[in-house]
Records
---
Amino acid sequence: MNIERPDTTAAAGRGAVMHPATLAIAALFAFVVLAQGISAPFQKDAEPQSAEWIASIVRDGHWLIPSDAYGYSDRKPPLFYWLSGLVAKSTGGTVDEVRARTVSVVAGTALATAVLAWTAANVGASEGWLAFIFMLGTYGFASRATEALTDMLMTFLLFAAYCGLATLVDNSEPQARAAPRRPIEAGLILGLAVLAKGPVAIVLCALAASIYILIERRNPIAILRQRWPWQVFAIAVGLGAVWYVPAASIGGNKILRIIVAENFGHFMPAKLGGTGESSRPFYFMAARLMGGAFPMTLLIVPAALAFYTGEISAGKRRAVIWQVSMSLAVLLFFSIASVKRDDYILPAIPGIAILYASVFTLEVRGAASKLRDVLVAAFMLSPIYLFLFVALFPSHVPQVNLQSSDAAYFSIFQTMGKSLIALEIAWLVAIGVVIFAIIRRSAIVVGVAFGILALCLSLFWTAGMRPGLAAMRSVKGFIPIVEDHVKGDQLCIPSGINYELSYYYGAAVPDLANPRCANAAAGKPVYLIATPRELDAMTLEYRVRLKLIAKSNLIGGGGPPALYEISPSGANGGLKGAGGAAK
């Protein structure tokens, strides 16, 4: 193995306690970065339904079991909705996009700041700042800070609880006796995580700790002979029971079925009694994690190589492995689980950011350092490759077939103007800094330039591209036109449930199978919102009874939705005539 002198700014991991003022400034910076796009319109179903649960708390006082506009009960533990309800109540009582997403932004800010503080104290100050920048520059993390969903809050609480367990696992019973408050603190935080997402928080902590212990070549069963794991478990379960017990008692079998489906049905495959929804191949989570953590994932091979060659110092190894164990636990658990969703990668990102930050502070300059520099330089120079391709093979560019969302992104990209110029300038400056730093073997400078460029790219998407796409897809801008025509008459949809429509319309919109649509009084207008795809599923006899009132210019897989007036005979025979869409 060929090992040369160390990178000039690389140093052994020295723990550093961050000054509160420094953390406050970092938190403010993170908040500003993560809040970009917070007012973008809702699209699809997940966020609008979550906003309706928050509205159920604020408007109706349903704190225990909120329900959406269609009457369906909240399927998640309520901590996120409780906090969001308090935000809405204290700021005027209105549930809009900003208020529904505020808790996620605050949780994301707290998580990024906690990663900075923990990494600085246990790995090194340089690694802490790099991990902080990498977190903010990771689109898979930054984009979820402006989602009205429970995942960011759960991830912050899970990270805080897992960090609290680190000392207990490493020092076991003597440390627990010396500081009995630590199991209590870890149990309370873990219990809050249970109230945010469910018992999966306990499972992930236990699995991650077991992976760490096995990597350290210790027996995980030996930990169970100690008192503190059971204290942590009992406190977490007891705090979670604050909601689970009364909810199950009042909600009866309905809530019990939801709890079982959410906590066990999502893990088990459909043939063994699972829900069967969002079932994807086992490699789905790994692929999503690789894509969601880009460009950090370029460093996965240098990181693994640094551990193998010993380029990462012994003083950092245990702390880094501790956090990476959570990333491995998330990947393993959700790869095995039947239900796999994009949001599930979020708890894995802090550990990955800390791991990749340590790649820029290696003890010696060996194969890992050289490969790191090559990959970073290749990433920095990637726009040049694209430019050369367009210049040398211009005839191939029009042949690229884009999907609907990609075509929309491309159209938004063409209108970015000054933002695009600023990004290009940042990229050119970063290229110059990285080349100079590589020549000078200043690894920290390479890492900072790499992270800041990733941050600029992430901001480009979260502040511009993503909100622009949401505006092109969301029915928010079409609803005033619909309300102006429908007024107090009945509005319907072809089939199923549309939470995005119901949220912006302000009431549940039934489908054609509902008596309010199918049996409307003769002569009273009945209206229908449908996309071209939904119209194609209807019979010709039914479609001829539809009169086009207004058409939107929204994009989406089903085509732009439009408002139609249904003739009285069409309304009365809605289910039969539109059978293809209403079944």
---
Amino acid sequence: MPRTLAAIALFAATGIVAAGIGVGGVLLVRHVQGNQPVANSPTEGPGSSSGAGEARALYQQATTATAASAGFHYVAVSTGGAAQTIVGDAGHTGGRQAITFDASYGTEQFTLLLVGTTVYFQGNTPAVEDQLGVVAASAASVEGKWVSVVSGDGPYSVLQPGITTSSQAGEMPLTAQSTARVTVGGVAATRISGIVPAGNNQPAGTGYLDITPSTDLPITYSSTISGAGVVASFTTTFSAWGTAPSVSAPTGAVAWSSLTTATPPNGFGSGGGATPVPTPTATPGAI
């Protein structure tokens, strides 16, 4: 839930410690679940709530179906604390994410590709500094370039999670308690409601997962947490089920290990927190 790390640092400034959930995923669910008003938002329809046992079973079926899918498209948005948007395409072994969020470095914009076990990063200067730890004096020269990040590299554990179908399936945390019939965009759906457990330095909250009854595949996952008078909402919408993304390694990528980097004060991808970002001590490299 790497992307959440940024959310944690920024929400902490307002009294809320949140790890974005979904792409996740920025959460320890890189999926920062955000509450984006989406067209055709679900509305309660006729029907009665059912028991927690059925809710737990349906939730398990939904996460299993998500992980088993050949692929899907998703959009995750957060509001109320630190604005963040993740647009992604997940597959079994690879995928892509385009991420935008506000940090103390500035508005970060970057793209991630997972090809095999390598993550390829391309972003603007604020993202290069925060996500990759490239020192300020060199960051502008790395902006827009593809950078390969492999296991063992400093930012890898923050950038890699949340991109595959199985990883995304884990970014919908929910202790299911009840189900009800709802209508989403004029289509019948099942809403699984419950508690979003506290953890990863985030308080407990409430959430729901809307699924298609015939397939158990998610339509929308939404959660809300609050504290210190601030309400943070996270929403992820899913589509294009069964569509596996086609991703390939970009040409001309430079290795992260060749860059002049230093671990950011609050860690890679932390957003820098609410205080000014001190200039890190550089580790000599090729760029």
---
Amino acid sequence: MFESRSRRCFLATVGRGTLLATLGPALAVDLGLVARGFADDAGQPLYFEGLEPLIAMMQETPVEHLQTNLAAKLSAGLPLKTLVAAGALANARTFGGEDYIGFHTFMALSPALKMSAQMPKGSEALPVFKVLYRNTKRIQEHGGRDSETLHSLATATLNSAPSEAALHDAIRKKDMNQAEQVLSALVSVDPRSGLDALIPAVQDNPEVHRTVLPYRAWEMQEIVGTEHALTLLRQSLHYCLKAESSRRAEWDEHGQMLTTLLDEFHLNGKEPGTKPAEDVFVQHLSHAFATSTPLDAARAAASALSEGFQPAVIGEAISLAASLLVLRDGGRLPQYEDRLKPAGCVHGDSVGVHASDTANAWRNMAQVSSGRNVFACLIIGAWQVARDRSYPGNLLAQPLPAAHHLNRLSGLDSDALLIKLDEAIQNNLQAHATAVMQKLSETSLPPERVFSSLLRYAVSEDGALHAEKYFYTVWDDFHTTRRSARWQHLISLSRVTASEFGKPAAGQEEARQLLGLS
């Protein structure tokens, strides 16, 4: 089973952070308590002790030979987790959060490893091989070792104490050197301080990649270790800095809206509430997020937080509103179709998939951040899902499934419905797949069986850069949403799965042969 997300996964570094705050950045480096990637070798290639040969292999091996090497490493006893760690660090130093395919691939690595835990015995490596193949292919297209974006930093020499405001100011000024110095100083004391300082910059322009990348970078510490927190978070910093060249006036409006709502609802300095919510309240709040203007949705979130409801309650409602967008998506318009995303599809960079990944990131960052950011993440999350609904597009008047599809499935038991689900997916019948899943939700079938049915397609199909990330978004949202509402996430996943079928992932056939699978 995947491990459910919780604060303890990320707050295990807090005690360490207290110690580092006492020692200070320079002594912490000397004692080996933080990575020496920002010591005295500024401008030199990043070097990762212990993993370096494997990381270099990920960057330098021609992609047509990569999976043979990966299979040999696996046969020799190297854990999948180590392969993913090496792939993540190879990706980070190559792209630094500045390449579209590169950062999408980075964000798929942790979900791929989690998916491997659900695979049938003997095939655990398939999702990991799939993403590592994409990773090395893009690294080589980018220029390999000669085109690395991230390099070592000098030890921070700042005139004042590093702070969230100092980082934000350096980003606004597009001062890469100063911004990296501030971030490195914050991370050297406590990695969570670095994340907390980045979040306000992320909130400047709430869009899917700017939102999801810092959370996936933070999450990656579970795989590569907290000593690499700076390298991981620098990706998000570079993304924000690069985006400053297209800064617009509305970015400042997001900050003003947050400040206004935090003041109006007296959330500054307030501790997050612990009040649980009845199912009907979550349904009402989710409906508000799914139908209101962005500002009204943000106000509804701020109001619920001021009433003392648990942050997780607001997170549930945001994710449910996002999954509803998957079920209302009219599909890709013909003028935007391409080889992997035909007209009518809803996988890849569709409004619903993007909204769901974004909502999942905001609700998780609210769990691992502190102070003002706990409230700000959820207020912006509610604002963003309402804004996503208002994008010009092709939304259906009513969400799927339709009544006539449901009526055709009356009287079928769970085993028959699972067969129907496969038929709908393999024939790209998106609406029919949602009806089958709705009927499955009314049976006593364990959800693990349904996830297993959908997992194999998330691995076998290309998914246009989003298959792994979205699959795990749904898994996480399902297991952190109340029983009365959580199947909506699986209904959405069934539609996306039916949409993406028929475009096999590159390298998967070779991977199956190397692993001895039929």
---
Amino acid sequence: MLGIKRLGLPVSYWRSREFAYVWRQLACPPGARVLDVGSPKDLAAMLARHRGYLVVATDILPQTVACTEPHATARRLNGGGGATTGRGEVHSEVQDGRALSYADASFDAAYSVSVLEHIPDRGDTVTLRELLRVVRPGGLVVVTVPFDRRYRETFVHGPVYERKAVASEPMFYERHYDRTTLAERLLSTELADVVDLSYWGEGTVRMERILSRLGALRVPLHPMEALLATALLRPVAPDGTGHPMAAFFTLRRR
């Protein structure tokens, strides 16, 4: 089922821009050891196959890791590659980003695509510090998160990832950062310098809203979503015209 979905929707609307940003920002040589914390796993396979990286793709959910391993094996990326063959590898592991089991400075770079916003309490800040801890000095950490002009949080009823619902209490799902909370929670750290920060969104045409309302009618558009993103998603001023919807940033470990 996962393979069929990837054939019809290889890279979705927002993911195409997020993946492209990570691709541009990472400038490691083949054989580099790169950590992925919780991102959609298609990107790990792309980086391994086309850049020759040794990607450790982690997730807090064991079932997600279990689905990723056969996919990497089918692409001949699950071992046997690396710098000696020119082909990278993807190793899948269960990890909690707030308490990574890796030693300090054990990766050349790290990335996390649309993950930190889902971690409750101060877990986003803790996870970012963990990403910086396990990256070597001079290495990059690349992150994407939702953004809006005003900070807001979303709660839902039912389980959220690894967290189970308690009675009828709503569960924290995600936060949309504004400039103040982005700076305070993710960018203000003595461990790194900000080397890139951009805000992305839409103009007059609000395609994300249209796609989300289509439901099952969205399926025929799946192969075209990357093209729609290229046409409609663009850098925007956080306080100017357009509709800011995401922040992409890159930190360099001191």
